[in-house]
Amino acid sequence: MNTSTHAVNRTQAWLESLRPRTLPLAFSAILVGSALASWQGYFDPVITLLALLTAGLLQILSNLANDYGDAVKGSDQPDRLGPLRGMQKGAITAPQMKRAIQLTVALICVSGLALVYVACRSMADVLGFLALGALSILAAITYTVGTRPYGYMGLGDVSVLIFFGWLSVLGSWYLQAHTLIAPVWLPATACGLLAAAVLNINNLRDIDSDRRNGKNTLAVRLGPVVARRYHVGLLAGALVCLAVFNLLWLHSLWGWLFLLASPLLARQARFVLRETEPAAMRPMLERTLKAALLVNLLFIIGLIISQQLR
């Protein structure tokens, strides 16, 4: 293998470990929070950009730590249905991955501190968001790393709801509005449920290999039949949250724009209920990710148009 080919392979291995396709889902939750802030007249573009940067880096940290933890524990075996990553292929060593994780943590600290400096108005807010930032870093790493990774205990879905839903949306909202109001919890929960649906498809795909390797995801704990029904509940729950938000607070026809994605979600729900083979879930991961992004994007557009027409 010549030097240029080796460099290309190394670059490809790092891109596979960074998983850039997962970034839009992290970004969309921040943008939902900012759209809610704009709806109430609090939008700040600088805070939004810093929040997007911090969320993106946290997602990258989670991806790198996930690859490291699964590779070290031997969970990602060649027989798994998901794609092989850099450490699995031997293209990235454990020390190299550790250094990448440390560098990402350092970048998160810089970005997060800048966000806190620009957005926080009181010492209580500063301390609160520093604590939340530290918790986010810890959660991103310990999903698969450590002696008792919570991703191996079926708690990944709860973590996704908290960090991709409540913390991302409510955090983005609060840093601009500096208050919490009841309505914003509904879109935040919807974002979290959609993100959990993406994770659940991943876990349904890998359910057999995860079970063999002692990775007790929620899908493994529930079993394939209940896990597929749970998936439908996640999709339906997200739509219900957005519908209740529009009925009780937005009161706009444009607020129903997210329903344009409902036929897509319905088709995916039928597919998940019908297909029993884990291998059938391979193409569904990207489709579920795109569907979740579409719902969030349509909700954001509807919210902004509703604001402009008030």
From TrEMBL:
One term of GO molecular function: 1,4-dihydroxy-2-naphthoate polyprenyltransferase activity
Leading EC class: transferase
Pathway(s) annotated for this protein in UniProt: Quinol/quinone metabolism; menaquinone biosynthesis; menaquinol from 1,4-dihydroxy-2-naphthoate: step 1/2
CDD domains linked to this entry: PT_UbiA_UBIAD1
Compartment(s) of residence: Cell inner membrane; Membrane
Catalytic activity: an all-trans-polyprenyl diphosphate + 1,4-dihydroxy-2-naphthoate + H(+) = a 2-demethylmenaquinol + CO2 + diphosphate
Primary localization: membrane
The protein's Enzyme Commission number: 2.5.1.74
Alphabetically ordered keywords of this record: Cell inner membrane, Cell membrane, Membrane, Menaquinone biosynthesis, Transferase, Transmembrane, Transmembrane helix
GO cellular component: plasma membrane
Residue spans crossing the bilayer: 21-40, 100-120, 126-146, 158-175, 181-202, 293-309
GO aspect biological process, one term: vitamin K biosynthetic process
Membrane association type: Multi-pass membrane protein
Source organism, top-level taxon: Bacteria
InterPro entries the UniProt entry points to: MenA, UbiA_prenyltransferase, UBIAD1
Function comment: Conversion of 1,4-dihydroxy-2-naphthoate (DHNA) to demethylmenaquinone (DMK).
Family: Belongs to the MenA family. Type 1 subfamily.
Name of the protein this chain belongs to: 1,4-dihydroxy-2-naphthoate octaprenyltransferase
Organism of origin: Cronobacter sakazakii (strain ATCC BAA-894)
